[in-house]
Amino acid sequence: MLVEMKSPAFKKQGKERPPIRFKEGLNVVLGKEDGAMSIGKSSSLLAIDFVFGGNTYIKSDGVKKEGHHTIFFTFRFDGTDYHFARNTGDGNKVFICDANYELTGGQYTLDEFTTWLKKQYKMDFVGLSFRIALSSFFRIYGKRNTDELNPLQGIPGQNMDKSITSIVTLFDRYKDIEEFKDNVNEHKKKLDAYKEARKYQFISDLVGGQKKYEENLAQIRELELELATLMEEAEKGHSEDEIELNKKKAALTNEKLTVEKLIHAKEMKLHLVSMSLEYGLYPTEADMTALQDFFPKVNIRKLYEVEKYHQKLAKILDAQFADEKAVIEADIAVLQERLDGINAQIKQLGFVGNISREFLDRHSALKSEIDALKNQNQAYLTQNELQQAKANADAVLRRSIEDILREIEETLNTKMREFNDSLFATKKKPPRVHFNSYNSYTFETPDNTGTGSNYKGMLVYDLAVLFSTALPALAHDSLLFKNLGKDAEDGIIRIYNSTKKQIFIAYDKQGDCRPATKKTLEDNCVLRLSTDNCELYGRSWDTEE
Fold first, then answer.
1. Same domain, residue pair 257 and 315
2. How confident is the model over 13-42, as pLDDT tens digits?
3. Better pLDDT: 269 or 239
4. Pairing between strand 138-139 and 473-476?
5. Angstrom distance (rounded) from CA 226 to CA 244
6. Which residues of 440-449 are buried (b: 16+ CB within 10 A; e: fewer)?
7. Domain count of the fold of the chain
8. Residues 28, 167 within the same domain
9. Is 539 domain-assigned?
10. Residue among 452, 448, 446, 440 nearest 409 (CA)
11. Is 95 in the same domain as 215?
């Protein structure tokens, strides 16, 4: 549990506030009875959210007005106190402190810290995010999660699917569907891999629908009939073996010509390199003399200097040419070995019956077209098979989730009915959650869509989750109580005060409360805020200087 929190930024009448001490159960931040604004009630709750790993406080008015500051805090688990510090200017670090809040040198990243909290609160459930779970029920002005019409949306922008997943993980039921999710992901990977292979044409990228599949079958039958007719009409009634031998010999002959061309090109290159090695690249003395005959005024001294440079360069180039010669000779040897192999294959085939080129071309064209259509149809069948396998896996996952959701729905609705009945002398219809499917839900109070009923429904829902799961704490800002009737308000405060789990609320206008509720609020007050330098930061920002 959270034991205390303090900061140099928290002041009262010019002095630093003493540590705010928390306890099990209800912890109340009380404002003025007249409901004075801008005294730090919401900021106090955001600071509590901050020590639980939240980030909304960093963008709060308190930080904007006071500048970045450090909050020191203590958690207690199994009788042991753990002391920490976290600065708003470097919110990704949580520093470990001693009992006097002196830094020890140890630190956590924010993710490491929230993981540590998750383990300490015994919430190390499969798929659970501690921050998403907790933040969803820390309903504080500024966090944008106070939509009374959609209480399951714990964080801004969260869709129904993710909201439902959050509830499933909080009930520690994600482990029951993890295998089915993994199965869906595995089938999705296979389907994606197949589509990627089509994209790069490792397999046929032409996958039509059922109509195209049937059209291909008809076309295949026509082409196979044409191929059979071609064979029958052939001059000697060539067998498939003869045709294939002819094709193979033709392919080998083409390959032989290609390799011979490569060898010839390599030999020409080898000749040029050999000439460079034999004759060199630099001018001789005779070349110099001849040059002076043509150009009497040429600077022979300069040319000889250049010639000496060329001699040095030639030595380097000679070595490079020698290396290149060795490479080319090796390439020729490899190509020659390949050519010898082709010649051996041609010889091994022996005499192959003479079949016309026209026949072979038409035979190849028909076979290619038939094979292409068959590959296309096979691609269609394979993709269908993969899609169906994924659809089946999805269906199994949906059924398993929906079975779990029915149980969670029953648990929550039973608890909400119990709490709702305790609020009123006359029984009224309780709020209800209904999971329409694995990714859709409705939340309502039947036959009552008033503002007060909707806010009451959200508070009752939060309490039902708190009492039914491992959720360790919740926080409710004062704005959530504004539209409640007296009976609902009294009853909810009573429920707050009935648990040892930590509940943090901000409240004002307690003068309007019934005596029993007012006493409960006073008895559980951990921080009292007011005007005249008794705000959270010792000053107010809404007064004009």
1. yes
2. 999 999 999 999 999 999 987 656 778 999
3. 269
4. parallel
5. 18
6. ebebbbeeee
7. 3
8. yes
9. no
10. 440
11. no
Domain region containing 306 = 239-354
Assess whether 28 and 126 both reside in one domain: yes
Is 27 in the same domain as 165?
yes
Strands (E), 59-178: 70-77, 80-87, 93-97, 103-109, 138-139
pLDDT one-digit tens code per residue, 121-161: 999 999 999 999 999 999 999 998 988 888 998 888 888 98
- 270 shares its domain with 227: no
The tokens for 409 are: 């729905």
239: tokens are: 């067998």
Distance CA 152, CA 405 (A): 13
| Higher per-residue pLDDT: 237 or 491 | 491
| Secondary structure letter of residue 103 according to DSSP | E
In the three-class reduction of DSSP (H, G, I as helix; E, B as strand; rest coil), residue 160 is classed as helix
Which tokens belong to 272?
């040029």
Q: Can you name the residues that pair with 75 across neighbouring β-strands? A: 2, 82
Q: Is residue 542 part of a domain?
A: no
459 in any annotated domain: yes
Amino acid at 220: I
| Per-residue pLDDT at 537 exceeds 80 | yes
At residue 409 the predicted structure's pLDDT band, cuts being 50, 70 and 90, is: very high
In this structure, which amino acid lies at residue 403?
D
Q: What is the pLDDT of residues 60-74, one digit of tens each?
A: 999 999 999 999 999
Residues 49 and 196 in one domain: no
Answer yes or no: do 65 and 98 share one domain.
yes
